[in-house]
């Protein structure tokens, strides 16, 4: 038995996308997700995305992390999901409604974007209204001092939910920051009972910031769309940037806007189809 898939990425955040409407899937989806996402023994991806039917939207996107865990929402994944639906003629709409565990998200494929190519579509996503917990909060994780040296045990954090939880930490030099050391400790701290995605951010100017992300269940990824949305909100709330900005991630740039009238965050970025294939199960 084989399952057809499409390998895709959004700014380097990569996915295995499967049409759950036509493909017969295994019962143990957590195990299947870990297998296909494994970069040595599987296809290799940060997440597995399933395009499913929905009773409340055009489609539903189910998301599994590389460790098999279920995810509420993925900003880069939703762009790839929209492109997949368009490329495979599942809908003629340019604006779709897609159900996620984080709510109904509406991506729009920008047909006349100057950077559009055969493999790459540019998609704007209405990420919805953020839920802000704390802004510039002085915080020390319970277990951090056990594994990190002095000077890396206290943080000023802003926590934002974009359908999934994010903890934003501003740093002076994000390129040299020990993300792989600090990220997993903050992610698993009891302060965040369901875990948290951790964004490390360096402000360049009022219109540009640089971001690195440690994602629950995936480790450091080249990009994180909901994370970029949370970063935009945190930057504005801390008066570091204007309401429109470019966020540079390891995998490329995303354009963000937190609209003052609607209070929704809008994110524009690429969705790229890499290759089609099938995997035996």
What does this structure look like?
This protein is of the alpha+beta class and 281 residues long. It folds into 2 domains: 2-129 and 269-280, Diaminopimelate Epimerase, Chain A, domain 1 (Roll); 131-263, Diaminopimelate Epimerase, Chain A, domain 1 (Roll), CATH 3.10.310.10. The chain is built from 5 helices and 17 strands. The protein has helices at residues 29-37, 75-87, 144-147, 179-187, 225-237; strands at residues 2-10, 13-19, 47-52, 59-65, 70-71, 98-100, 103-109, 120-128, 131-139, 155-161, 165-170, 197-205, 208-215, 219-221, 244-249, 252-258, 265-280. It has an 8-stranded mixed beta barrel. It is globular. It starts with a strand and ends with a strand.
What are the key terms here?
281 residues, alpha+beta, Diaminopimelate Epimerase, Chain A, domain 1, 8-stranded mixed β-barrel, 5 helices
Helical fraction equals 10-25%
Give average pLDDT, whole number: 95
Return residue spans where pLDDT drops below 50 for at least 5 consecutive residues: none
Question: How many distinct folded domains?
Answer: 2
In what order do the strands lie side by side in the largest sheet? 1-2-3-4-6-7-8-17
Helix-strand pattern: EEHEEEHEEEEHEEHEEEHEEE
CATH class of the largest domain: Alpha Beta
**Strand content range:** 35-45%
Q: What is the strand tally?
A: 17
CATH topology of the largest domain: Diaminopimelate Epimerase, Chain A, domain 1
Main beta sheet, described? 8 strands, mixed, barrel
Q: What is the global morphology?
A: globular
Structural class: alpha+beta
Question: What is Rg?
Answer: 18 Å
Total helical elements: 5
